[in-house]
Amino acid sequence: xxxxxxxxxxxxxxxxxxxxxxxxxxxxxxxxxxxxxxxxxxxxxxxxxxxxxxxxxxxxxxxxxxxxxxxxxxxxxxxxxxxxxx
Length: 86
Prior knowledge:
The protein is mostly helical. It is 64% helix and 0% strand.
């Protein structure tokens, strides 16, 4: 009974080892000499790349409005279910 799990482990290891023997396409020959010798691009500060975040006060007010709307919607649905049961 204990041989089956051990054989399964060895089978998985063997399959993994065989998968590592695949040939990958050579990418070095596809890169042109101009690209290979090109300079690295300039790094930009991240502040200019990301959109500004909304103010926490604005974000919390929007969240509060959304939660109140969801709460009132759930309360209406609960009341409709109570009426349907009576």
